Amino acid sequence: MTTSVPETTGAPAPQPSRSGVAAWGALLLGLAVVVGALAAVFWSGVVELPSYSIQNDGHAVISETELTQVVAMDVWYAITGILVGAGLGLVAWRWFKSLGWPVTLFAVGSALVAGIVCWQLGELIGPRDFAARLAAAEAGDLVPMSLQLHSVSALAIWAFAAVTPVLLISSLGRDEEDPPRRQRTGVPAGASTVDDRGVLTEEET
C-alpha cells in the first residue's frame, strides 16, 4: 500500500525583502566605515616613518635602512587589509548568505569602503606637508616623511581577503537547501518510510 504525501524537504528558504536587504546593507556600510577608521589609527601607529636627516650644508639625506620603511608603509596597509577584509567577509556571509551569489558583492564592497577610509584617514592622521617641513628644517633635524600609500593596487588585497572566506564557506560548507539523507539501516519490518520522491511506503515482513 502506498500513499502520497507532500514533499517538504528541499524547499527554498524565504528570501528577505528589499527593504530588509537595504537596511542590513546600510548597516554593513556603516560598519565598514567605522572599521576602516579604526584600521587607519592602527596603520598610522604601527608604521615607523622614515626620516630625512638635515646636514650642515642644508642637504637632506636618508639611509638605506630608512628607505626600507617606505616599503613597510604598503606592507602594513596590506596586512591590515587582510585582517579587516576577512572579518568583513565573514560578517557579510552571515548577514546575506540567503541571497546567494550577491553576498560576494556585499563582502567586496564593504572591504573596499573600509580600505579607502583607512587609506585617506591614515594619511590625514600621519604628518603632512612633507615638503614644507623639509624646507623649514635646520641642520641636525630629522624630518619624517608623510604616511602615504605608494601602491594603490594594495587596495585589491582588501577585496580578495573579504571574498576568500565567502568562497571557502560556500564551497566547503553544507548546502542548506539539500534534503537530509534518510537512514536506510535499522528499519524494523512493517515500518513506514518515505522514499526520495516523498512517497510513503510500508516495509513488508
Can you describe what's shown?
This protein is mostly helical and 205 residues long. The protein has five helices and six strands. The longest helix has 33 residues, at 64-96. It starts with a strand and ends with a strand.
- Radius of gyration (Å): 28 Å
Q: Which residues form runs of ≥5 with pLDDT under 50?
A: 1-14
Question: What class would the helix/strand composition place it in?
Answer: mainly alpha
The percent of residues in helical segments reads: 40-55%
Query: How much of the sequence is in beta strands?
Result: 5-15%
How would you summarize what this structure contains?
The chain is mainly alpha-helical and 205 residues long. It has helices spanning 18-46, 64-96, 103-125, 130-136, 155-172, and strands at residues 2-4, 51-54, 60-61, 142-144, 192-194, 199-202.
